[in-house]
Amino acid sequence: MAKGSQDNRFKTLLEILLVSTRLGLTSFGGPIAHLGYFHEEYIRRRKWMDEKTYADLVALCQFLPGPASSQVGIGIGVIRGGLLGGVLAFLGFTLPSVIALILFALFIKSFDIGNAGWIHGLKIVAAAVVAHAIMGMTQKLTPDLARKTIALFAVVAALIWQSTFTQVGIILLSGIFGLLFLKTEKEKVYSQLNVPISKGFAAACLILFMALLFILPLISKLAPFHWFAMFDSFYRSGSLVFGGGHVVLPLLEREFVPAGFLSEEAFLAGYGAAQAVPGPLFTFAAYIGAAAYGWKGGLVATIAIFLPAFLLIVGTLPYWDQLRRNPKMKRALMGVNAAVVGILIAAFYDPIWTSSILAPIDFSFAAILFSMLAFWKVPPWVVVLTGAIGGSILSIIG
């Protein structure tokens, strides 16, 4: 490889690491808010891919089990910088919250932040970020009456039937509706989705994903060693959960509290900390692992719960560009993208709005933060800092 090409690749990988790390330090608010942060940083500011490609990538990750926002981040890293780019994008976005939650687990008896005002301020930040994301995505993905109707169906269904599989059902029905009834838009010029991963390697990742899903439970039974059992539990949690981080938390409680890995009180304290730190909610696994077996347990738990997400997104991306350009698939994706807007609106109401906007002063503060993002174009990290400080002030004067 020529020296110039090596230098360019190094700069690209370094940029991926730095940008994803900044997002990992400032992206508060859970998986839905993360998609808003990604959209602002990767699409609007840096233009690493076009709006349609980003929407299709989000739709793909909504289809897959696991942490959707983390998979979107990994996918962007892979498309931008290959397999190593995906790894760096994952590490940058994930490690800050992993480190914070491992430290919190190690010093759990010294902390009491459950009702801290700055945590409430960060929840208000999440409301502003999601509202901003909704405003942008609605204009792009629901331009006509048919897709507005799909989005409305998604909102109603997601709010009324709140179960693990509701989101998957909404996406599947919306895709079928789009395939049957929507008309394909006039052909546009899309940026080529060049995925620097071979289809053979992608297929190997999918085979490994399935093999581990079936082999790990057998290993943990044949060799009853606590590390195997923990790795198996976290891998299954990351493989079988649809709906993102909020869904995995009660699943992890059922998996680890009755088994004696940690107490109910310690679990709830960690839950509060997980809501307070930036990055993906799946890093709550790091807290559980560290509470049970120290910092090594935290790292093993993190690898185990995120490994399925990595294998799935790397395994499907090389086939995605071919599928999304198929006319039938494009019609289905038009329906799915409209449903994603509806799911986003539903999540904006519950849990984001219901847990953050508790009084008129909260709404006023959210409006200010929204204006900072949408109209004044203030960097997201400044908005996050403003939210934390403002939340502390609101707790004092309230």
UniProtKB/TrEMBL annotation:
InterPro entries: Chr_Tranpt_l_chain, Chromate_transpt. GO terms for cellular component: plasma membrane. It is found in: Cell membrane. GO terms for molecular function: chromate transmembrane transporter activity. The chain crosses the membrane at residues 54-79, 85-108, 120-138, 150-181, 201-219, 234-252, 273-293, 299-320, 332-349, 381-397. Keywords: Cell membrane, Membrane, Transmembrane, Transmembrane helix. Its main location: membrane. It is a multi-pass membrane protein. The keyword Protease does not apply. Pfam families: Chromate_transp. NCBIfam families: 2A51. Belongs to the chromate ion transporter (CHR) (TC 2.A.51) family. PANTHER family: CHROMATE ION TRANSPORTER (EUROFUNG) (PTHR33567:SF3). This is Chromate transporter. It comes from Bacillus methanolicus (strain MGA3 / ATCC 53907).
